Amino acid sequence: MGAGPRAGAEALWRLAAGFLGFVLPARCGPCGTKISGHGYLCPSCWGGLVPLAAPFCSQCALPFEFEAGPEDICGNCLMDPPAFDWARAAVLYDGLGRSLVLSLKHGGRVAAVPVMSQMICGSVMGMTETGLRPDLIIPVPLHPTRLAKRRFNQSQLLAADLARHLALPLDSFSLKKIRSTESQGGLNRAERFRNVATSFAIDPRRKSSLAGKTIVLVDDVMTTGATASACAKVLKKAGARSVGVVTFARVGRPVAG
Question: Which helix (H) or strand (E) element contains residue 86?
Fold first, then answer.
């Protein structure tokens, strides 16, 4: 996206936010408390989020229950390395973090998207301190039948706001989900990886735009990394130089199997 369209989109976003603030009082999405501006949380709800903090796996961001070095990786990543190069998350998928993900994904409550994307932005900025220079933001796509039922892709909403914060191009069209899969809920680790295998593909008309790119893949939550790994696999096959993953939340306990 060029500077003109991006500046126009940001101006429209600010205008809409200002109009909303004039018409409706700002309230915290989870609890309804009046707050100073739309898209934020009250102090109490902020306190209900548990940031993902070290030590955690440097590749999949799984929290460790013991002291570990910044380059240590978990047993699952040692035995079966994911296709993505690194992963980071803003908070643990617990308490309010879990509630925000579920209310967005299944309740359509998009008011928390700005604060969720800002927290994800912090994860990306943390990686830039290690030398990361992203070229492109890509959301994990939904299958068309799921998208029609839900009417929006929560990962795309988060990715669009993240791209705006970071002033990076957003690509919501190159990566597609071509096979409808059953819900990952209730599946063990091995079943999750099998369930999403071969379910993503690259639009052949856009393959050249991915060549040599450092890509940040965006999703709402990571459990085993199966979906992110399946996406990263096809992105790298299309020529991406590296693929990192950022999510709002990370499940803190390993999924068996």
Answer: strand 86-92
- Give the model's confidence band at 20: pLDDT under 50 very low, under 70 low, under 90 confident, else very high: low
Q: Give the separation between CA 158 and CA 108, rounded to whole angstroms.
A: 13
Strands (E) across 160-241 are located at 175-177, 200-202, 214-222
pLDDT at 18: 54
Indicate the helix (H) or strand (E) that contains 87: strand 86-92
DSSP string, 22-88: HHS--B-TTT--B-SSTT---HHHHTT--B--SSB-TTT-PBPSS---TT---HHHHHS--SSSEEE
For 81-101, the pLDDT digits (tens) are 999 999 999 999 999 999 999
| Cα–Cα distance measured from residue 61 to residue 64, given in angstroms and rounded to the nearest whole number | 9
For tokens 């102090």, the residue is: 43
pTM across the whole model: 0.86
Domains of the chain: residue spans and CATH:
11-47 (no CATH), 49-250 (3.40.50.2020)
- Which pLDDT tens digit goes with each residue over 176-217? 999 998 788 778 889 999 999 999 999 999 999 999 999 999
